[in-house]
């Protein structure tokens, strides 16, 4: 049995840890007509330190409420140790670091004042090393980030577009005991349950994925799959967003909302809500058992097939969204799926307590048909964008329509609170 579990761990370690590659571009399309005939709200840019300094007492209370909720919802979560908890007596010079540690996020996150220019435009560019601590910058090198000044007035849509991408910049890196960081030893998350702890970007995996509907036998043999934390982050940042709006800090109200939306959008991606779409529990167990006795081909084939389709849909989505925005091709079927406002695409936000039954179950159920449709396309990897009528756009449009409707529902609920 121990050998089997170790084998499952290795299998899950092997999968690529992706989500929607282009949160900012997707969110730009979602918000393009979100306020319709009304003017887009304007906000005054404010540093994180300024916000924290003015709302010390309220932040301490808000984080305590969020922790209480999370400890009841997530039995695998351990309490934050007392020395890490945010205090209203914290000196101003230590506020940002203390805040990060109380949230149990990467203490080196920069929270720069910036926007991601979607679409690209001129301005004072922000160097990437002032935005992220990532060693491997990946597709961020393709994007344009512009510096902001405290007190500057910008649109709420610009804040949200930028913030939905931000958690992938390093917010959840190196938080586990085996990630080789100092905070990993004191945050209390234990060893990284899945994803490769030796790979930089993979160290964030358990915060951006949520497996809630796997067969019982899989959870029985691989209980570590339950050790995920996106709900923890969504609750933390939602409560902070509400606090910021209540206390007159709309810039941080929208920015924290964007951070929360990142994790919600991740959970709309079927490969983030299902470990192995279209692979039955029996087959998962079978390939593990034969691999234990030396037959690796069945497991390797399964990994290659599924990770290939996972990579394909992510890569294709990234380049397609960029192209739609650059060319202003709003009539493209995928753009229409994202910007649609029909009654059929309207849902009401049911709250974080029902996230699994609404957002995650929908994504999990979409996993099998999506994976089969992608396999039938017989496209081994991304190489080019296809004509609008190509069936890959039907697949992608369906998935991103779900992302869009849940993003809108969340924002509508946030405004009404």
From TrEMBL:
GO molecular function: hydrolase activity, acting on ester bonds
Top-level division of the source organism's lineage: Bacteria
Protein name, entry field: Phospholipase
């Amino acid at each position: 049995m121990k050998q089997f579990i170790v084998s499952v761990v290795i299998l899950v370690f092997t999968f690529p840890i992706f989500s929607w590659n282009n949160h900012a571009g997707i969110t730009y399309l979602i918000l393009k007509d979100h306020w319709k005939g009304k003017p887009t709200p304007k906000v005054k840019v404010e540093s994180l330190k300024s916000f924290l300094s003015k709302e010390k007492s309220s932040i301490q209370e808000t984080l305590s409420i969020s922790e209480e909720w999370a400890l009841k919802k997530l039995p695998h979560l351990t309490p934050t140790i007392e020395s890490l908890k945010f205090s209203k007596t914290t000196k101003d010079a230590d506020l940002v670091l203390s805040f990060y540690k109380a949230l149990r996020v990467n203490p080196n996150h920069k929270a720069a004042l910036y926007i991601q220019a979607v679409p690209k435009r001129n301005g004072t560019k922000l160097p990437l090393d002032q935005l992220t601590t990532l060693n491997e910058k990946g597709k961020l090198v393709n994007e344009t980030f512009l510096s902001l000044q405290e007190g500057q007035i910008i649109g709420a849509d610009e804040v949200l577009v930028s913030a939905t991408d931000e958690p992938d910049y390093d917010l959840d890196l190196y938080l586990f005991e085996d990630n080789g960081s100092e905070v990993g030893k004191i945050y209390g998350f234990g060893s990284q349950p899945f994803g490769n702890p030796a790979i930089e970007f993979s160290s964030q995996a358990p915060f951006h994925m949520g497996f809630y509907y796997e067969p019982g036998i899989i959870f029985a043999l691989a209980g570590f799959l339950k050790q995920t934390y996106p709900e923890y982050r969504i609750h933390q940042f939602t409560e902070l967003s509400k606090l910021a709006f209540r206390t007159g800090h709309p810039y941080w109200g929208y920015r924290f909302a964007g951070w929360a939306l990142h994790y919600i959008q991740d959970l709309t991606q079927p490969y983030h809500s299902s470990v192995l779409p279209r692979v039955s529990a029996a087959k998962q167990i079978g390939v593990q058992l034969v691999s234990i006795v030396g037959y690796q081909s069945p497991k390797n084939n399964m990994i290659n097939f599924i990770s290939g389709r996972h990579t394909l849909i992510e890569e294709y989505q990234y380049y397609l969204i960029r192209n739609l925005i650059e060319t202003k091709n709003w009539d493209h079927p995928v753009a229409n799926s994202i910007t649609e406002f029909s009654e059929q695409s309207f849902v009401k936000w049911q709250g974080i307590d029902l996230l699994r039954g609404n957002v995650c179950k929908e994504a999990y159920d979409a996993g099998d048909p999506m994976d089969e449709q992608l396999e039938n396309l017989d496209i081994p990897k991304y190489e080019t964008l296809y004509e609008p009528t190509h069936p890959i756009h039907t697949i992608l449009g369906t998935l991103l329509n779900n992302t869009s409707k849940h993003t809108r529902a969340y924002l509508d609920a946030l405004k009404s609170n």
